[in-house]
Amino acid sequence: MSILQTPMSRNTTKPYLKMSLEELRAATRQYDDPGYRPKSLPKTPAEQVRIERTLRNLRRGYRPGVRGRAPIGKGARRVLITVEAKLLDQADAFARRAKMSRSELIARSLVATLAGANAA
């Protein structure tokens, strides 16, 4: 039986560059199938975390190419304010402990202050 009559196994040790055309066709026949799906390696824990983070961002409305937070209401605007250094340090420390950004802390504080002013 010649090598042309015997199908090549996928675990052949012969390099593709050393194969004849017929051997190469036999060895790579599986890739000709349009429905071929190669087996993948298991994901590492770091890859799984990255995939989950990406899916979470997509569910939240992540917009590729658009930086910053998603607009709430009419969107966000940048403002330049002056705050005492010690007060800003305290605000930053509080925001870190509460796991929020400085902008989120200021926005929440404004909402609370305005709600209190409207109630009075």
Q: Which structural category fits the helices and strands?
A: mainly alpha
The general outline is elongated
Order of helices and strands: HHHH
How much helical structure, as a percent, in the residues?
Answer: 40-55%
How many runs of DSSP E, i.e. beta strands?
0
Strand content: under 5%
Give the termini separation: 97 Å
How many H/I helices? Answer: 4
As a whole number of angstroms, the C-alpha radius of gyration is 30 Å
Largest sheet: none
| Poorly predicted regions | 1-6
By oligomeric state, this entry counts as single chain
Overall pLDDT: 83
Task: Put the structure in a nutshell.
This protein is mostly helical.
Question: Could you please describe the fold and organization of this structure?
Answer:
- 0% of the residues are buried.
- The chain has four helices and no strands.
- It has helices spanning 21-27, 45-59, 85-97, 102-119.
- With 120 residues, it is mainly alpha-helical.
- Mean pLDDT is 83; it is low at 1-6.
- Among the domains are: 1-33, no CATH class; 79-120.
